[in-house]
Amino acid sequence: MAEPFPVEPELSPEELVPGPSPDPAAWAPPPSPPRPRIRFPPRPGRVGAPLALPREPALFPWLARRLAPGEATLWCGPRPAVDPLLEMLYAGSALARGRVSLLEGGNRFHPYRIGELGRSLGLDAEATLRRIRLARGFTAHQMVALVDAWGREVRRHPPTLLVGHDLPALFWDGETPPEERDALLRRVARALASLLRRTGLPLVLTLGPEGAGRFPGLADEGPRWSDYLTIARGPTALRLRAMRDDVRLTLVARPPGQLGMEAFDGGPSAEEVTAWGVPLRRTARRSRSG
């Protein structure tokens, strides 16, 4: 099983019990936040970050090029699109003998699925999970305390990659007053910026389709952004778009070695397409064909 962060003094063990999962349909909409400013630093001749990810499948080098030491990469999209890609990232990191330090805000960590993905890459399921250290918060104040303590955790157990999964979710559960929510999220943004300056580690920060609009302070007080990915899901594909260089990747459910029509398009502007090594889970939506 994935190991938790050590509980800091301000959190008692009795507080770390799962509460009811918030209903996304009941969330109040944000008060028309300003469009986030994407702060991409200029990097002539920039190369990929020295991150522990394998060279195959082609998905992993593509993701690694979006990361940079000491900077955050935002993954924005609906949960059915973001979560399977993130689980594949965990398995790929384990395959390359990397270590992930994960702060979970959405209570959506699925060890059995991640273990199976590890098996699909030739790893033992338990070995895959041992390379992930996990901490969950169940209230907004617990999440603030865990972010503040993340630096101490990283010193004790050095990772190769930080992941903040849906950190703002707990602040929009209806329990936190709007004025307090904004102040707490800005504190989280500043803490993340300080963490990356001190550790020099890359951070993957997953958000919903609204992007940074539900994370006050992230654009102006948070860490520097390496890239901003939008992720969308179709019936048989995941579509990724990296905003820094405006490059796109489509992951399709296709047997290894099989070519699609995109192989005949060519040209520098053609969209990159690669096989998705894991079948997409079925949705309730049925195809009209057949």
* CATH top level assignment of the domain at 53-235: Alpha Beta
According to DSSP, the number of beta strands is: 10
CATH superfamily of the domain at 53-235: P-loop containing nucleotide triphosphate hydrolases
Instruction: Quote the distance from N terminus to C terminus.
Output: 42 Å
The tally of helices reads 7
CATH architecture of the domain at 53-235: 3-Layer(aba) Sandwich
Fraction of residues in H or I helices: 25-40%
Low-confidence segments, given as residue ranges, are 1-37, 43-50, 258-271, 275-290
Radius of gyration: 19 Å
Structural class: alpha/beta
**Helix and strand run:** EHEHEHHEHEHEHEEEE
| Residues in β-strands, percent | 15-25%
Give average pLDDT, whole number.
Answer: 77
Shape: globular
Strand order of the largest sheet: 1-4-3-5-6-2-7-8-9-10
Please summarize the sheet with the most strands: 10 strands, mixed
Stated plainly, the CATH topology of the domain at 53-235 is called Rossmann fold
Features:
Rossmann fold; 28% helix; ten-stranded mixed β-sheet; alpha/beta
Task: Tell me what you see in this structure.
By secondary structure, the chain is of the alpha/beta class. The protein has a domain at 53-235: Rossmann fold (3-Layer(aba) Sandwich), CATH 3.40.50.300. It is 28% helix and 18% strand. It has seven helices and ten strands. It has helices at 59-64, 79-95, 111-120, 125-130, 140-156, 178-199, 218-221, and strands at residues 3-4, 72-76, 100-104, 132-136, 161-165, 203-207, 225-233, 237-242, 247-252, 272-275. The protein has a ten-stranded mixed β-sheet, with helices on both faces. α2 crosses α3 (111-120) and α5 runs parallel beside α6 (178-199). The longest helix has 22 residues, at 178-199. The protein is globular and about 45 Å long. The N and C termini lie far apart (42 Å). The relative contact order is 0.19.
